[in-house]
Amino acid sequence: MANIIKNIKAWMPLLKLGNTVSRKNELEEYSRFLVLNNLKKANIIDYLTKPRALYDLINQFNWEYPSKYVDDFLKLLVNDKVLNLKYGRYSLNKGVVIEKPNVKFIEDFNDVFEVYSTGIPNRLKGKFFDYTGRLALFNWDSVLAGQIYQALRDSAWNFIDTKKINNVHLLDIGCGPGYETADFWVRFQGRNTKITALDYDENLLTIAKEEFCQNISRFGYKETTWDQLDNPPVFIHGSADNMTMLEDNKFDMIYFSNFLHWLDKPIKGVKEMFRVLKPGGFIFGSQGTTEVTNPYLDITARVVEGITGYFSKKQFNKWFIEAGFTEIKSATMVNTFKAKKPIK
Ligand SMILES: C[S@@+](CC[C@H](N)C(=O)[O-])C[C@H]1O[C@@H](n2cnc3c(N)ncnc32)[C@H](O)[C@@H]1O
Q1: Chain-wide mean pLDDT for the chain?
Q2: Which of 36, 51, 161, 208 could disulfide-pair with 91, CB 3.0 to 4.6 Å?
Q3: Which CATH code is given to the segment(s) 2-14+152-340?
Q4: Which residues have C-beta atoms less than 6 Å from ligand 1?
């Protein structure tokens, strides 16, 4: 019964965003349009009106090859019947229409993918999009402060037993510009908690610290300065798959949201999180998986330097089991999850 209630509570913040299925469909349709439109702009669509071998595409557009990205990209277009593959040649399916869909729910999140999708022709050449560079950072700022990420945090928070949170040390992994750190810091007031927040991007950590006071005021904390803060978070630089600066069994709780698809070998990160968690401690958060993250979004996200790509929920659970976690539970379509490090 308690589990059913927790499940419902995890769903509630997401349901507030509106009809989750139609939003998912809209995002899917829109991301497909963005990918195809950028191929059109790069003349790849026109070139494919005649059958072309992979070799022709590589030569014509200077694609980097061998490349898993190119393989996955072509596979996606064939699976989606954008391209036909016959006798080793790709050609555009005549029925393909590239028209901006009438998406009602455009918001910051879609803007980010609009920016990222422009990087696809370059990504096929082996050139990445710098995550903290140019527009992307600005856009991500508003995404992380926006209603989707807020719903993800609320969902994760609702899924755990918050009454028991007292005298704890939380590790916030992939804290980025620090919205979630600020959000949790405010939630933790009066609970005698400590927060350590880690990211591998030093620029983001600088922003996280500089904007921390502004961010906590967004979450209802009084206006203050960093020097006046009682027990501010500690921002540390490092990679989650190799946290050598953190000793074993250090934290009571670990949180991350939509971060694991950045790692080259996610299992290494999950094992590291297990190592730094105290026995009896728990990990929670949300992690999109291929069940909800459509392949067009995946191919778009992978233009960003560092992003490896999404995986299935089954794979996610397998990594957690392999690392030693128990009581692995998940709720909602965005995989709001929690798991425990057993005491023995
Ligand atoms: C989707 S963002 C999440 C941002 C943040 N959690 C929030 O909600 O405000 C993912 C973050 O993971 C960070 N990241 C990527 N690879 C990492 C790694 N190996 N170790 C630590 N952080 C990493 C990125 O720099 C980025 O800030």
Answers
A1: 91
A2: 51
A3: 3.40.50.150
A4: 144, 149, 174-176, 179-180, 198-201, 204, 239-241, 257-259, 262-263, 306
